[in-house]
Design a protein that fits this description.
A hairpin with a 5-residue loop joins strand 4 and strand 5. 46% of the residues lie in helices and 15% in strands. Helix 9 (225-231) runs antiparallel to helix 10. The longest helix has 18 residues, at 48-65. By secondary structure, the protein is α+β, with helices and mostly antiparallel strands. It has 13 helices and 10 strands. The strands form 3 sheets. A 5-stranded antiparallel sheet has the order 1-2-3-5-4. It has helices at residues 3-12, 48-65, 104-107, 110-124, 126-129, 131-134, 143-156, 163-178, 225-231, 233-242, 249-260, 264-274, 281-292, and strands spanning 22-25, 31-36, 40-45, 77-80, 86-92, 97-98, 186-188, 197-200, 205-209, 216-218.
C-alpha cells in the first residue's frame, strides 16, 4: 500500500470526519505512521513480516492493559482491507513528545524512573498470567544472533573504524558471546528507545510507551539497554531501584553495562549505512567508549 492508498484508507475510516491536520512519518524501520487531527494514530506495517506480528502485538497490549500500568499504552483497533486482510491498526494518540526530543535533565528524574520501573515490572511479569500468549513470542536473541550481528559489524563497519574501536567492539561482543550468563527469560518490549517513550515536556513527567512490534521472549535486562545507552548508569540504576524482580538487580545491571547498553548504536549504524542516512559516527563511537568504561 503506497502513501496515496494509505491516505484514502484513513479518510474512509474517519466516518465523515474532516481531516484538518495530517502528520506523516514514513522514516521508521517497521511502520508508516500518520497522526490525524492530533488525535488518532494510524500505523501501517512496511512488510508482511511486520504485519504478521500485529495480531500478537494487540493481544499482548490487551493483556498488559489488564495490569493497569501507570504509563499509558496504545489500545488498538485493527484495520482490514476489502479482502479482510489486516493491514494496520489505529489508536487514540497518547499525549506527549518522544523522549528523543527532550533534554535528558527533564527525563532523568526519580518520578520518571518509578513510572518506567512500574511499566517494566508489569510487562516482565506477564508470563505468570499469560503463558499461552508468551509462548508465541519470538525467542531470537541467542548467542547465534549476537554472533551474526558482530559479523555484520566487522564486514560493513570495521573498514571505517580505527584499530582501537575494532578491538573494543570485538572484546564487548566476544566476552558476552563466550560467557553467557544463566538467567530466566520473560516478555520484553524489545525496542525501548527514546523514540518509543513519551513525555509531557512542560510537566517533565513521562506519559506513555508505544510500538510493541519487537516484543519478544528474552532476557529482561535487554529492556534496560536503551536507558543505559542514552542516559547512562545513574538513571538506569534509579529505574532498577524501583523495579520489582526476584533476580539479583546487580546481575541485571552487569549484563546491561557490559553488553545490552552498548550494542544499540550498531543497529543504528548499520541501518543508516544501509539507507544512506546522515549519522554522527564520531559522537556515537565516543559514547560507546564512555559507556563501556563507565564502572559506576
Amino acid at each position: 500500500m503506497d502513501t496515496r492508498e494509505q491516505r484514502r484508507f484513513i479518510q474512509s475510516h474517519l466516518s465523515g470526519q474532516t481531516i484538518t491536520s495530517l502528520q506523516k512519518n514514513t522514516d521508521g524501520w517497521d511502520n508508516d505512521l500518520y497522526i490525524v487531527n492530533e488525535q488518532t494514530v494510524f500505523r501501517f506495517p512496511k512488510t508482511l513480516e511486520v504485519a504478521s506480528k500485529v495480531i500478537l502485538e494487540a493481544e499482548l497490549l490487551h493483556a498488559l492493559h489488564n495490569t493497569n500500568p501507570m504509563l499509558e499504552i496504545p489500545k488498538y483497533s485493527s484495520l482490514y482491507n476489502e479482502n479482510q486482510e489486516l493491514i494496520g491498526v489505529s489508536y487514540r494518540k497518547i499525549p506527549g513528545q518522544p523522549l528523543a526530543s527532550v533534554k535528558s535533565s527533564h527525563v532523568c528524574t526519580s518520578a520518571n524512573a518509578k513510572l518506567i520501573a512500574d511499566f517494566l515490572t508489569k510487562l516482565h511479569r506477564l508470563p505468570r498470567h499469560q503463558p499461552s500468549l508468551v509462548k508465541r513470542l519470538s525467542d531470537s536473541l541467542t548467542t547465534t544472533h549476537w554472533a551474526k550481528l558482530l559479523s555484520s559489524i566487522e564486514e560493513k563497519l570495521f573498514p571505517y573504524f580505527s584499530d582501537l574501536y575494532r578491538a573494543e567492539i570485538t572484546d564487548t561482543f566476544s566476552q558476552f558471546i563466550q560467557s553467557p550468563s544463566v538467567h530466566s527469560k520473560t516478555t520484553v518490549h524489545g525496542d525501548l528507545t527514546a523514540s518509543n517513550l513519551l513525555i509531557d515536556q512542560e510537566k517533565q513527567i513521562m506519559t506513555g510507551v508505544i510500538d510493541f512490534t519487537d516484543a519478544m521472549w528474552a532476557d529482561p535486562a535487554f529492556d534496560f539497554g536503551g536507558f543505559y545507552w542514552t542516559y547512562g548508569g545513574c538513571f538506569t540504576k534509579d529505574i532498577l531501584a524501583h523495579y520489582d524482580t526476584d533476580e539479583n538487580k546487580d546481575h541485571i545491571y552487569k549484563r546491561v553495562r557490559e553488553f545490552y547498553g552498548l550494542q544499540p548504536v550498531f543497529h543504528d549504524m548499520l541501518y543508516t549505512m544501509r539507507h544512506q542516512l546522515e549519522f554522527n559516527w564520531a559522537t556515537a563511537l565516543s559514547t560507546f567508549l564512555k559507556r563501556k568504561h563507565d564502572h559506576s
